[in-house]
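Lest this sound abstract, we let one protein speak, letters for residues, whole numbers for local backbone shapes, and leave readers to judge:
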Amino acid sequence: MADIDELSQIIAGCQSGDSGSFSQLVDLYSRRCYGFFYRLTGNRSLSEDLLSELFVKLVEKIAGFRGERFENWLFSVAANLFRDHLRARQRETRMLEKQVLELESEPAEEKQSGKDVFDRLQNGLKDLDEDTRELLMLRYYSEMSFKDLAEFRGEPIGTTLAKVHRGVKRLRELME
């Protein structure tokens, strides 16, 4: 672990955009932050994803660090990131539960075989414009988050949400 003066120099380097300083910061704290996430999640892959996301957040937020204890600040950013992850998972769970309830509430005679639904889905996807098809594939097949999808496409998250909603609505119309 670096002493306080060395850590202050590393942080100052990060704040001025020095990638070498940022690499040092990652080296100093990646194991502890990974352990923090792993204890919270019990999942190696998710912990690695959260760790990567944490260091991306640090690049964005390091300029706002005002000299308090760095470790306290770092772990508060990590804890907030984990809480954001939990909220997103809860939203996804609620959406999936709602969809399952809607499917279960259909009368038995209206339910179609899995192959028929799959065929209609494939045909519906073919009939969508290329942009909408790509958007839905990234969201639902690649399981990309709305935030990541918006960043990938270089547009505000609200725009991405609206486009996905309209795309799903259009796909449902095509499948009927």
